[in-house]
Design goal:
37% helix; Rossmann fold; single chain; alpha/beta
Length: 214
């Protein structure tokens, strides 16, 4: 990322149907760019790029504040209720090349529901899918976003208690991505202060990679 008055980070969101993937994209952008609703079938059928307005108060460099822009590529769910794996993979691969081919991708966000157990097959299929798209270094450029954390809190789980009781499958996934994860409270994710906290965490993950891109 060039040293200027503005910094842009490029993100792509992956996840299964009804994990809140598109809603996460909207929260990060501070908009309603992506269709997000409760449905018995997959809602998103194509890739879509959203771009935020300038965001202030998030990032400083060399003693001065920079404006931040966030670009988010929303993708169809995998597995998808109406599209084959090959179709989803080819669609996402084409969109990544089209939108981020020159600028590069900073971080892939794997969206997982915190209020539902993560099964081994589900995790294996998803990580294999991401690896096919991003290559062998995918783990360095992937973070896990645990949505519906408010429901876990309502059940009496703090973040520490949740991880203590989490399945070995989820813990293995978090270990794979070097513990880059964020708990998202769906009731607060649209609040400006909550959004700023999440964006700062994502920027810290990008800095861990020394601003490298895929």
């Amino acid at each position: 990322m060039a040293d200027s008055n503005e910094t842009t980070i490029n993100l792509v969101v992956f996840g299964r149907t009804q994990t809140g993937k598109s809603a996460v994209g909207n929260s990060l952008l501070g908009s309603l760019d992506f269709e997000s609703r409760c449905s018995p079938s997959s809602v998103t059928t194509s890739c879509s790029l959203g771009r935020s307005c300038r965001i202030s108060g998030i990032i400083r460099r060399n003693g001065r504040e920079l404006s931040l822009r966030v670009q988010v590529l929303d993708t169809p769910a995998y597995p998808h209720t109406g599209l084959s794996k090959e179709h989803v993979r080819d669609t996402v691969r084409s969109a990544l090349a089209h939108h981020f081919g020159k600028e590069g991708l900073h971080l892939a966000l794997l969206v997982v529901r915190a209020d539902l157990p993560l099964c081994p097959d589900e995790s294996d299929h998803t990580t294999q899918f991401i690896q096919e798209l991003l290559g062998p270094t995918w783990k360095d450029f992937t973070a896990v976003l645990l949505t519906h954390a408010d429901k876990a809190e309502e059940a009496g789980f703090s973040e520490e208690a949740y991880l203590h009781r989490a399945s070995s499958t989820l813990l293995s996934l978090l270990s794979l991505v070097q513990h880059k994860y964020i708990f998202l409270n769906n009731q607060k994710s649209i609040i400006k202060e909550e959004r700023a906290i999440v964006l700062r965490k994502l920027l810290s993950f990008v800095r861990q990679n020394n601003y490298q891109i895929l």
